[in-house]
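Posting for a labmate who doesn't have an account.
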Amino acid sequence: MDRRSLADRILGVIRDDGLEVGATFPSASVLCERFGVSRPTVTKALEMLEAAGWLSEGGQGKLRTVRALPNREGRS
């Protein structure tokens, strides 16, 4: 089982999906299905990533985009 926070796992989507700065980020609905968690849980994690500057702000009908790339090196 992955013990990283949901925000860390969602941030990993950038690397795992090969996204670049400016790329459209998956929707909250897609992330709910991908990680098997509720929408409010995903929304909270996305808001944390927006506040940290990784993602642009989403909103009603607005797509989030990647604003910064995490380090490509893995954790040991």
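Reply:
Got it, the structure tokens are right above this. The chain has a mean pLDDT of 90.
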